[in-house]
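[09:14] KT: can someone run the structure on this one? pasting the chain below
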Amino acid sequence: MPLQNSPNHFLSSLPAADALLVEPHLRPSEFPSGKILYRAEDLIKDVYLPYTGIISLVVGVSGGQFVEAGMLGRNGVVGAGSALDGRMALNTAIAQADGSGMLIDASVLKEIARNNENIRTRLASHEQALVAHTQQVAACNAMHELEERLSRWLLQSRDLLKSDMLPLTQEFLSQMLGVQRSSVTMVARKLQESGLIKYRRGRIHVLDLEGLHESSCECYGAINEYFRKLIGWSPNGIPAPA
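[09:31] RB: done, structure tokens below
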């Protein structure tokens, strides 16, 4: 598959000459749900380019709890910073839903980026989009009600998976949102009673997309706008204006 037709936005956006530099070093990889790609403070050995699935970037605290700081999938590069100016992971990357894609040795990509300004700039833009994303999520977690946060999270998951059927358990949702499972159960029940979703046996089916948008906070749109402006990606494929 030519990289210009890749399901991963970073790879598909590379000009042909740059793609030829990267392509020989790519290796296929599977990301089964629950797989940890790297842990906080690890030296990142590989950079991941998901085609499918979702990779959650989570931050833990001393009590053993953790909360999601951001999520990436077909729109991003996981571990891009290791190919720029740092190899140490600042968070833990874990597969939230089964997926697959490509990976490349971080030191190899760093050498390519060092000698190619366009690739270096594109990686930096992806890192900037991720920083904006994590900052918006931090503000969302601090300021918005759980129903809004859950709705935003479901919309983001749907965009990355390109499916109305989301393989997500309430236990996992509670961990990602940093709340008690009983709180997620209550809010999910409310969304279900409103006809926005249907939950059964570890799967959430989005029934009313417009209603879920109305239930979400403005952070969903803000995050997508960052990705659109900084790297030209949006869920519906509409690029940023020139």
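[09:33] KT: thanks! The radius of gyration is 18 Å.
[09:34] RB: yep, looked fine to me
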